[in-house]
């Protein structure tokens, strides 16, 4: 594992970008499942979340690989390939808490609807935290950072609103 100092700004940005993609994808999935939680089980909810996230990450990996070929005309070198893998697999951490909450529902500690609602909240908070990681090093006034983070949180809430509207 590389230290934060050894990672270039471009590579940090790629890692943050993938986490944002996975977070928004996961948010859409848990919201869709949460509209009718009685129609699914915790196991099916967890499987759906994992399958959608893995599919998204595979698509992103293939897109990055093809983009690399297009730009450079050669296969990625071993370091570039490891970076692509690290970016892709590192984004899986985004679903750890939602999966733990769904597992708690499977164990009867929570209702599935509660687990999915809590997951949505965690994912919106994750978006804000990822946004914070992105802007913390900017040489901009604090209130600009606040506006950026607030806008990101609003976008997360907009995803929730659109998802709920789509399932009415």
Characterization of this structure:
By secondary structure, the protein is mostly helical. It has one domain. 78% of the residues lie in helices and 0% in strands. The longest helix has 31 residues, at 42-72. The mean pLDDT is 87.
Fill in the keyword field for this structure:
mainly alpha, 168 residues, single chain, 6 helices
Question: Could you provide a short overview of the structure?
Answer:
The chain is mainly α. The chain has six helices and no strands.
Radius of gyration: 18 Å
Mean pLDDT: 87
Task: Characterize the largest beta sheet: strand count, sense, and whether it forms a barrel.
Answer: none
* Amount of beta strand: under 5%
Number of helices: 6
Low-pLDDT segments: none
Order of helices and strands: HHHHHH
**What is the overall silhouette?**
globular
- Structural class call reads mainly alpha
Quaternary state reads: single chain
**Helical content band:** over 70%
Distance between the termini: 45 Å
In total, the number of strands is: 0
Count of domain modules: 1
């Amino acid at each position: 594992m590389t230290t934060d100092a050894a990672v270039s700004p471009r590579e940090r940005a790629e890692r943050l970008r993938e986490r944002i993609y996975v977070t928004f994808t996961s948010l859409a999935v848990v919201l869709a499942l949460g509209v009718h939680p009685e129609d699914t089980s915790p196991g099916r909810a967890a499987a759906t979340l994992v399958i959608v996230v893995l599919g998204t990450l595979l698509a992103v990996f293939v897109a990055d690989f093809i983009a690399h070929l297009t730009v450079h005309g050669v296969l990625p070198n071993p370091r570039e390939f490891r970076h692509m893998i690290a970016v892709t697999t590192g984004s899986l951490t985004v679903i750890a808490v939602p999966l733990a909450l769904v597992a708690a529902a499977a164990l009867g500690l929570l209702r599935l609807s509660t687990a999915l609602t809590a997951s949505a909240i965690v994912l919106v908070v994750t978006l804000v935290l990822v946004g914070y990681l992105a802007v913390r090093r900017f040489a901009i006034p604090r209130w600009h950072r606040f506006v950026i983070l607030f806008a990101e949180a609003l976008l997360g809430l907009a995803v929730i609103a659109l998802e709920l509207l789509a399932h009415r």
